Amino acid sequence: MTPPDDQRPDEPAQYAVQAPADYPVDFEADVVLRDGATAHLRPITPGDAELLVAFYARVSEQSKYYRFFAPYPQLSDRDVARFTQVDYHDRLALIVTVGNDMIGVGRYERTGRRTAEVAFLIEDAHQGRGLGQLLLEHLAQAARENGIVRFVAEVLPDNRKMITVFTEAGYKVAREFEDGVIMVEFDIAPTDTSFGVMQAREQRSEALSIARLLTPSSVAIIGASRREGTIGNALVRNLRDSGFPGRLYAVNADTSATEIEGVPAYGTIREIDDTVDLAVVAVRAETVADVVLDCAAKGVRGLVVVSSGFAEIGDEGRKRQRHLTGLARSYGMRVIGPNALGLINTAAGVSLNATLSPVMPSRGRVAFFCQSGALGVPILADMAARGVGLSSFVSAGNRADVSGNDLMQYWYSDESTEVVLLYLESLGNPRKFSRVARRLAGRKPVVALKSGRATQGVPLGQLVRRSKLPPATIESMFRQSGLIGVDTTGELFDVAQLLAHQPLPKGRRVAIVSNSDALTLLALDTMAGCGLETAGEPRNLSPDATAEDFGAALSEVFADDRAHSVVVIYTPPVQSSGAEVAAAITAAAAGSDKPVLSTFLASRRVPEQLRVPDGDGGAARGSIPSFLNPQYAVGALAKATQYAEWRRRSDSHIPELPDVDTPGAEDFVAEYLQRHPRGADLNEADRQRLLSFYGISVLPSFPVLSADEAVARAADLGFEVILKATAEQWRMRPDLADIWRHIHDEDDMRAAWAEMTRTFGVAADPGRAQFVVQKMAPPGVPVVISAIEDVSFGPVVSFGLSGVATDLLGDSSYRMPPLTTRDAAEMVREVRAAPLLYGYRGSDPVDISAIENLLHRVSRLTLDLEEVVKLDLRSVLVAVQGATVLDTTIRIAPNEKPRQDTPARRLT
């Protein structure tokens, strides 16, 4: 609840709560409500007694009746103790707070080994904001972690709101009517339907929370200044000059002026006799928290904090930044920044420039998210120079709250945005980023530039979990999500220029019409390097080709069904404006659904001669972009073509694996961690058992300590075996044979033992096996399938062919589970050594489906079991039919940092 304007709120309750020793801090979450406002969700504590009593006093008698099925005007001391004292395992209550007020509570109480009863109570003034749905999601997540798989509830028939919470959650709900009460029962395991419901709600609420920032009716600049050259003065000027039709207010505690740069001025935001939707904050870092409390008292919906002095300066700043974020969210406000450049919205009726950049871009169809404040100004200048209009722009600085994920949720449903650009310095929640980006890319092209890939560097101000995965993981994630990855800002704008004005290509074949042989050769070389094909021979015209010559050639290529895209290269003769040639190009391209790019007079934008004007004086769709040279044009076209192929790809799905026993695997892991609380590497028997839950069988191997023992074991197996060295340093050595194959009898085994011991020496520990005996597998190609639990990305699966060269060249593919059928197929095919699997130099093609099946099973295992921190099927022999797993390693360890993208919605 918002305090009166003349009363500043205190620090919110969660900062003062004294939690019990067993308090599950991981259950805490900042959440976005249905109306876009934020709130804090956390487990209840004994210290919340007064908070609960005050909450219950505000709840209507009808809501109390729905909860307890009888009049229940007030809580007794015994009730309060029972409701606030829980064990967080068999009995759990989660509360939602805004500022210092509890506005909702949900709880479950175990009624059986795997069953619990669930109930909710929401303050009447906050019903309809989605609290019941959020509480159900988080209670279900906590219950699953505590071994509960089913919820039951009793609901009065006329309590339609609560019945709706259950029936619209995406679970399969069973209902029975008994003694005047509806009995509701459902399994709480996440399903495709429940995931879809939660993600749709997440998108709507997070999009609305960003819309509240981008479409204010009134803005206050806190820290406004009369002095030119100051941040506070620049913000006032830029907002005033942007054409913002709403109300502007300048706030400066150190001035008695009634106006600043023509904007009404006040000492504090609370003195403004009007509502304020957005506050742009430019005060000293030490005073920002006080400003947040003032804004909370005023009912401000969002903040843009341009002030520096937060996480980028070290530990003190990091604490200050965390406090700022928690404080703002606890009072329902989202934060852009701190250390941000700000935000821009060019939409008609908004025209808002709340940034430090004096450049107000023209209205357009491209949206841009940038983490770097320093890079934001040159980005805006470069886009203006290219004539690329923007729909909206956000530079988030330290990105303490609002992130690229939030903006992608907003742009997904923003009709004025057709292309999204991302400049990323770090990924706070890679799993959610991948999920949200994939959904957006299925509707609109998303072009992304990730800096720091080579060094894995993270700017000081951005608080993220540091990944230990190779840079190739980011590139693979971009491909998996359908993002158009680029390497430079120039390439970012080149691709944006094409996508903003031209349709997507329908294939890889490109027709070239040119009056320069040299530039045609550059275009052809670039096409060959990026996988594009020529649609027949290029139409090479003479250097002094006329408009009629260009028109005739272009008519031919546009009529040619072989051509999917057209590149026009025009280098004019002396003293020619090219106007007639431009007219010929636009006439030929009019009405075509083939993308057209040009190198026209070496222009780096949409030339006036090739522009289709829009209503705002910009370039509408159908305008033909020009690039400095054909290499840039073809490079942008190649990126657009790859994205178009991703959009056209056949339907893909996550395959069903009916033989998987997830509960059995979970029980095995829990029991293993009881025996090994700090984690350990599994022995062979445990590895085989764990993998068996997921339908993965391993060819057994048997350690042997002597030649006699090796002979005996081989005889037991019926010979046709191998003798293999076990030490890691001998594996895959190009100069040493670590495996002796085709052992048919005792003589073969003794000869193998003698030669292997001469090669590798005698084990230093006579009780430790240096070799193993294993049955021969069918001949095939050796591959490696691995998975790792990364602190930032969560589970990541990789694939590659076995061998030193693969390791040295980093020839591996990566994907984040869950894997679709398309993901697994692409993993196998995108490694450079993939031809070895398809009959290279006359060899037999191997069973690709067997590889993909193993990838799906490993993906499912790592997705289900986050305690499996490392898994390697490090020797898989793929034959013409089937694949044999020969060697594995698995490590299980307690999960110290839970995955960030859980089924229950939360801000991270």
TrEMBL record:
Q: Which PROSITE patterns match?
A: GNAT
- Span of domain N-acetyltransferase: 39-193
Drop me one GO molecular function for this one. Answer: acyltransferase activity, transferring groups other than amino-acyl groups
Superkingdom of origin organism: Bacteria
Task: Name the UniProt key words of this record, in alphabetical order.
Answer: Transferase
| CDD domains assigned | NAT_SF
Keyword Transferase on entry: yes
SUPFAM superfamilies from the entry?
Answer: Acyl-CoA N-acyltransferases (Nat), Glutathione synthetase ATP-binding domain-like, NAD(P)-binding Rossmann-fold domains, Succinyl-CoA synthetase domains
Q: Which PANTHER family match?
A: COA BINDING DOMAIN CONTAINING PROTEIN, PEPTIDYL-LYSINE N-ACETYLTRANSFERASE PATZ
Record's protein name:
Acyl-CoA synthetase (NDP forming)/RimJ/RimL family protein N-acetyltransferase
User: What organism is listed for this UniProt entry?
Assistant: Kribbella sandramycini
